[in-house]
Each structure stands twice: as C-alpha cells, then as structure tokens.
Known about the structure:
Blueprint: H1 5-16, H2 25-36, H3 41-47, E1 57-61, H4 71-88, E2 96-101, H5 107-120, E3 124-128, H6 134-143, E4 148-152, E5 161-168, H7 178-188, E6 203-206, H8 208-219, H9 225-230, E7 236-239, H10 245-256, E8 261-263, H11 289-298, E9 302-306, E10 313-318, E11 324-327, H12 329-346, E12 354-359, H13 365-372, E13 376-380, H14 384-393, E14 399-405, E15 409-411, H15 421-437, H16 442-453, E16 455-464, H17 467-483, E17 488-489, E18 492-499, E19 504-507, E20 512-514, E21 524-528, E22 533-538, E23 544-553, H18 561-578
Parallel strand pairs: 2-3, 2-4, 3-6, 7-8, 7-9, 12-13, 12-14
Antiparallel strand pairs: 1-5, 4-5, 9-10, 10-11, 14-15, 16-23, 17-18, 18-19, 18-21, 19-20, 21-22, 22-23
Amino acid sequence: xxxxxxxxxxxxxxxxxxxxxxxxxxxxxxxxxxxxxxxxxxxxxxxxxxxxxxxxxxxxxxxxxxxxxxxxxxxxxxxxxxxxxxxxxxxxxxxxxxxxxxxxxxxxxxxxxxxxxxxxxxxxxxxxxxxxxxxxxxxxxxxxxxxxxxxxxxxxxxxxxxxxxxxxxxxxxxxxxxxxxxxxxxxxxxxxxxxxxxxxxxxxxxxxxxxxxxxxxxxxxxxxxxxxxxxxxxxxxxxxxxxxxxxxxxxxxxxxxxxxxxxxxxxxxxxxxxxxxxxxxxxxxxxxxxxxxxxxxxxxxxxxxxxxxxxxxxxxxxxxxxxxxxxxxxxxxxxxxxxxxxxxxxxxxxxxxxxxxxxxxxxxxxxxxxxxxxxxxxxxxxxxxxxxxxxxxxxxxxxxxxxxxxxxxxxxxxxxxxxxxxxxxxxxxxxxxxxxxxxxxxxxxxxxxxxxxxxxxxxxxxxxxxxxxxxxxxxxxxxxxxxxxxxxxxxxxxxxxxxxxxxxxxxxxxxxxxxxxxxxxxxxxxxxxxxxxxxxxxxxxxxxxxxxxxxxxxxxxxxxxxxxxxxxxxxxxxxxxxxxxxxx
Length: 584
C-alpha cells in the first residue's frame, strides 16, 4: 500500500480516536505502538478503511483497528443489527436471536460479545455452550422460532481471519431488502452507541437440547436404511480439521448406523491455530495429508473432511488402480444429486413436484441428469443464500430434495437453509455403502455417471489483483469483456453470451432474451457449440476475479477417464490462452 503523507495522516487521525477510554487498555497500547512505529505499514493496514459490513456480514484479519476483526468492530455491527431488528419486529413482544461460533481464535469472545449486546438491547440471545457447525445455527433459528442469528466464523480462511455471518428468521443468510437495511443501520453506529453491558436474564445457553433434534432430523434424509444395515462396518476416515465438525459429524454417522468410523486424532483437537495444516480448506490436498495417511493405513473405503465451520465437505476415495484420488466440488455435487434422484426414484419416493438447485457456475452434467430423470432443476447465483431463497419460494408447494455448488457445499434437506457438512457426510457414507453393496466404490459411481451422461472437466482460475489498483484492473477486465465478448474459446465457437448485469442473453444469430434472476449481478457466461462453458465473476469477499471453465467429451469406457482428463486440461489451457490467462 502506498505510504503517502495524506494517507498516513488520515490513518493517524482514525487511530488516535482508538486511544479514548471507550477502548480497553490492551487495545490502546497496541494502537499507540502502531502510531509510534516509524514503519507505518501496520497502521495503514489497520486503519486505511473500515471493515465493511457487506451482504454476508464481516470477514477480516483479527487485530485492533477499523479494518480488523475485534470486539469493537463486532460490537458496532451487532448494535446496528439490533437496531434493525427492533425496527423490523417492533410489534413483537420478545425478539430473539441465535448466536453460534466455530473453533477460531477469539470466536468465543466475539460470540459472547454479540450475545451481551443483543441482551443489552432487550433482545433474547440463545448462545451455544461451545463451538457448533454453521448449519446447526441455521437449524436452531428455525427450531427456536428466532428472528435472526449470528455465526462467528471465517469458514476456510487462513488462521489470521475471523468473521461474522448474519442470518434471518428463515435460517438463511440475509437477502434483500434486509441485507441493505442492516448495512444502513450498522453504518450509522459509533463506538459510543454500543451497549456492551449484558442483561444476563436475556441470555440462554443452548446445546444438547438443539443437538439431539438436529441429529434426529438429519437422520430423516437417509434414503436406504437397509443398505446401511448391511454395510454398517464401512471403513470411514473422518477429519474436522480442528473445527466444529468434531462435535456433530461422528455422532451423526453413528446415529445413521455406521460403527467403523476412524477420526484423525491430531485434527480432532479444537484449535484456531490449525497446527497440522497450512490452510484449513478441504478443497486442498495438503489439508487431507493426515487423513490420507490414516485412510491408506486402514485401507478405508472413504476419507471425508469438513472445514472449520463444518458447512463444506471434501472427500477422497480409491480409483480403479487402488490409488487415492480427490473428488472435486463439481463431482461432489454431481454424485450427491445423482444418488438422491436415482434412489428416490428406485424406492418410489420421487414426486413430480420435487426439484433440485445448482449454482450457475456448477457443472452442467447435473442439468442432463435432471432432464433425463424428468425432474425440475433450477439455476441460481453463487452462494447458499440463493439456494435457500429457492427453497423458501416453493415452500408448501414443491419439495426441495437437494442442491449444491462447485465450492464443496451441499444441502440435502430443507429444515436447514445453509450448506451442511453434517448431513452431507452422513449421506456420503450412505452412497459409499450403496456402492459397496454392489461391489463398487465411489469412484465407480462417478465413472458410471460420466458413461451415462457424458464426461466433464471443470477448472477454476483465480486471478488475484490486490489493492486499489487491483480492484480497478478487475473492473477493467469485466468492462473489456463486455465491450469485446470472445467469439471463440480455445478453438470452440461461442454461440451464446449471458450478462447477468444487464440480465440479457444474446445468441449467435443476434436474438436477445431476458435472464430471469432475482437481481442483477456482475457475472458473464459464454457457451460454445461443443458445450464448453466459461463463467467470469469478481469475488465478493477477496481481491480476485474467478474464471470457471467447463469442457465436455464422450466417455465410452471407464478406462478412458485419465486420458480424457488430460485432454480436457489441454483444452482448458487453450481457453486460458484465448482469455489472456496463460500466466495465471
């Protein structure tokens, strides 16, 4: 960041306000040390802007300052949220909220701060006795008929981060108009407005009274109890990566009837420093190192891992050569939806009113399955609040039976309104039991899907452009793509251009149709004559722009998989070159 005099002066002025008695002694001392330090880098990073309360809440590095996660920034956000709840539910005698947190450093402190402030504002706060999965927070809001919820988590971000997710009374993350309404209230709050002193009478500790009904409900999504009974000793290795999954996922697996579950001991320890991994993200092979060690040693059937707040699941299984391979997020969503549709149909449970949901950047093979099985499939924007919106729109009229996204999130039930690794791990074990019952593996199931519905290779390119200049560069990239949309991608002719900002789709013959979406979004998509799909969207939470590439092929034998995978990667490299991304 540029160390110019005006910026330093601006940051010093903001920092000096943090030397007032409104802030605790340790915070004042740390801020004074930044002011005294001749190197102004830390001062600028901590104060050059306010950590923005966005549509999903807050997320940032922990530490003192306006651009950091700390009890004061959390406090101002909560005071604003409380003010909005009191305006929105003014006729309700007692407003209540659920407060939940993950394993991260300071998560309990922030959660207690949130509960204290809500109670000080006359709002009843149900706070969990210890860390819990994100989906259980969503479940508890609905179960307790609360008006809102706050979950303290930074999901799979690095250990230096923490975050604050805001939920509404339907158990989903807030959508319009409430998201903007809350942001407006939060932006009005100063530190002196925050009521930190709790009303203990309005704080209620919750725990097993929510855990048991949550697990009981999750058990209801099991499709084939008999296959579990026959394969109850399926060899499962599970790791929570030090996070909230440790509390509920082994219990849920046992509740479903699986009695041969090995939990990676080093990673069953709650620890916000995540000492055994560089990044606690089950998408990365590195995070599964210890899990793979145990899976190989035990000759397991499946390895599953949840991220720190236990809303996403990563997995690995053996291929046809007995080698352990990772299953990516698109394949994960594909397997789950294929199993739900196929086995509900086999058991006569599939109804004409059932529907599934995927995000627009997730594999189109799901669309082929839905079309062949004659089931409604809906596309929505990235983020589970949009899947939750689809469930809410059809409540009482149609039955949601599953939905997911390429970033390893899946939701198999409607009584939770956020992605759920507890139910996903339980259902994954059932799918593996189903495969084993037929002498197959999860890998064989995936190959069978490709054989029936066509091979697909997906790849995401993350182009990082930090800082103010990076944001401008990302903006320019999107403007340039709109002004000069690609006519070919890696040798394939583009035949359809979708722009979710204008909500228009333009075909190669010039025909323009409207895109029916709940609101405009800064996303572009291009479809080619060979079913290649490329989606482009700037990230809402990080300084990056993402390119989601999907290429297709025909697979006639499972032995072709590796060859098609390499061929697909070559095509993806050609597409990257077409977009000027060969170095990213």
